[in-house]
Amino acid sequence: MKRLLIVQNYNANKGDSSVIHAITQSLARLDSDLAVAVTSYDPVKARAEYGIESAEWLVSYHDIKLAGSLALKLLAAAREALWILYIPCWLLAHRLGVGLLLPRSKRDTVRLYLQAEVVVLPGGHFFTNLNGFATNLSHFLAMLFAFGLRKKTMIYAQTVGPFFGRFGRLTRLMTRYVLQRVDIVTIREKDSLKECGGDNVHVTAESVFALDTDASLADALPDLVQLERGGRQLIGVTIHHIYFKHFFSRAAYVALMAAIFDGILELADAELLIIPMEDSCHAGGDRPIAAEMIAGMKHPERIRVLEGDHAPNVISAVISRMDLFIGTKTHSIVYGLKNAVPTISISYQQKSNEFMEMFGMLEYAIDLRALEADRLLAIFARANGESSRIREALSRALVGVRRSAGENNRLLLSLFGTRS
User: Are the beta carbons of 163 and 176 closer than 8 angstroms?
Assistant: First the structure.
């Protein structure tokens, strides 16, 4: 039995969860002798959702984020800080054949590392200052631990960068240290080549493009079924409740999206469905800012937020049922494209533009930093008028994109001495 460990899965996010589904399902078809485990932000949820063995991140912030009081938050932070200081001591002792004690919360995590032949850090974009420095540090230490155990390692279908701000230089240095030492790096768009290069780097495609969608999964959602029965055009939307802050104030972003939603409803006899891409356990995820946008609209009666926290395959099924889709969250754009739904990308990063370009759809993308209501509405009107042609073009392009996505697994399996 060959053993693979996927590390640093952030399963509160639908996109990150869909990556694990894509990897595990595709690898199961290629190699039945491969056992996959994962370190996840919420290991209990991961075991239930993925059906594989799971443990917490090597350096975890789950208990810090969800602590019910400041005292508990500080206690959880102190525990992780002490563990970070202890890691080099444990690794050195392990190298010398001495078995030091492990904190109870880290025993399963370390056991999965020790059992694994290959350790993989999967996509999306884990090394970037769009994430906080603490998150980048956790990803960095997760890979350093694998290096310390002399495991074969891979960065799998990642976006690398951008780096900016107070910790930009340090984060870039940490990232390059990891990229230069892993056995294989695959990146999902060419823009990341600015931050990495070398014989171990390969440009492939986002792994989720290879994951099939069962559109019937959306039949179990009463609010979607009700909308479909209404007979109006259905337009799906995802927003970003975090990264807008790099380009707009919260008030400006809310007002802009409210104006865009109203403009769409004036152009089309449609219903808008805002589709959350984040679990509600973290202060509501993207729902609170969505509610603010709706409150600022002139036509709030024709827009709603999809209720409930749903698995990524259900979210993909919902998006597959839309007549047109406007995405800001990266993997929601992936869902739209791979389901041949006419898709408009509000791109907070170059990766989304490159995904659109892979399908010949770059003309329907607009950068979040340059987002204006009139420009977006002009793109909407054009896409809406060409929806049949767009669906056909997306279906044709998917064949080649899926082939590129499959290269991730071919390279991964080569680390086990297995080629598919």
Answer: no
Q: What digits encode the pLDDT tens for the residues 298-343?
A: 989 999 999 988 999 999 999 999 999 999 999 999 999 999 999 9
DSSP, res 131: S
Q: What domains are defined for the chain?
A: 2-210+402-414 (3.40.50), 215-338+343-385 (3.40.50.2000)
Is 128 within 8 Å of 172 (Cβ atoms)?
no
**Residue type present at position 7:** V
DSSP assignment of 166-189: TTHHHHHHHHHHHHHHSSEEEESS
Q: Which two tokens stand for residue 317?
A: 């099924």
CA trace torsion 327, 126, 398, 387 (10° rounding): 10
**Residue with tokens 């754009």, as numbered in its chain:** 333
Buried b / exposed e along 282-296 (16+ C-beta atoms within 10 A) = eeebbbebbebbbeb
pTM of this structure: 0.88
